[in-house]
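Need tokens for this chain, all 244 residues.
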Amino acid sequence: MHMSYRFLLSLVGLWLVTLTSARAQRTLFNMPQAEIIEYQKLFFQAQLAFTNQWQGGLAWAYGIGKDFEVGLNVNNLTGYYPGSHQPLLELRSESPEVNPDLTLTLQKGVGLGEWGYLGVGTRTGVGYRDTPSHPRLANFTYATNLFTFGDSDIKPSVGGYYTTPAFAGPGNRWGYMVGLQAPFLHERMALMGEYISGTNLYSNLTLGLAVQSGKRWQVAVGAQIPAPHSSNSLGGTIQLSLRD
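Here are the structure tokens for all 244 residues:
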């Protein structure tokens, strides 16, 4: 079997193994959420986005108490479809936005009373431009506020971010984010939407639907619409997670 096919099968297997042993919180597609993982609980999420190519990401996090969480992210696992005359998994490119990166994560949550809940965090690690022997700083630092309105289940959020080319590709480094979660059918389903401003890899409007299966599984699907003046493509995304 070709090496790239073995890698892809191993990646899928890793998702499935991890999904049988982890717990997750509710999140949006790419916009970090302020909700902090509970003490000594795990979070795992796997996501695939589809345009003229596919792009995957994996995220693990662990609640360490006092409204802190730490974790590990693997982003920008980019490849092409069989028959496209392109490699199934792209591991060498001069374009930072299609190169994998590995980041450590840290987030702190702060209650703001009637204003909601603030999350401040960073994803910092290494990415590369042409070969793994030339690493670059991959960073995504952010602050998001999750608003609460009395007993309403609708949860809007707003925030800002700073990023580097090794994480988000060429384009803007500073930007803002807005998001919305609207559960219905006794929280068995939820409408989800987010907008990440700018012209980098993550600058998209994503609208979708999340379905809760059982007590812990959640599957979310969405449509990805490029932000104005970005070079992103129309596409779709699917996200698998577990939650408490």
